[in-house]
Amino acid sequence: MTSESSGPRTPHHFEDCPECDGDLEYQTQSDAMCQDCEAVFIHEIRTSRHLLWRFTHEDGLTEVVARAE
Q1: pLDDT in tens, 10-63
Q2: In the structure, what pLDDT confidence band is assigned to residue 4 with cuts at 50, 70 and 90?
Q3: How many domains does the chain have?
Q4: Which of 17, 20, 40, 64 is most buried, by the most CB atoms less than 10 A from its CB?
């Protein structure tokens, strides 16, 4: 008996800043920063859902600002 995997994960990157529509640049696979307003975000993958969290050094992850599947 073989088990089938769900297949390889589809790569996804959020490209636009949810705050100013500027371009996001990924510093690492999960850390993104807007080139225009310098807002910082964390890209998290939970199973097949991609979440983009707003991040501040004072508060850490504050809220999900974008989702994709």
Answers
A1: 467 899 999 999 999 999 989 999 999 999 999 999 888 999 999 998 999 999
A2: very low
A3: 1
A4: 17
Q: What are 6's two structure tokens?
A: 């769900």
What is the Cα–Cα distance from 68 to 44, expressed in whole angstroms? 11
d(CA 14, CA 62): 18
Residue 17 lies in a domain: no
Q: Is residue 10 part of a domain?
A: no
**Any idea which residue has 């225009």 for tokens?**
36
For residue 33, give its domain range: 24-68
8 located within any domain: no
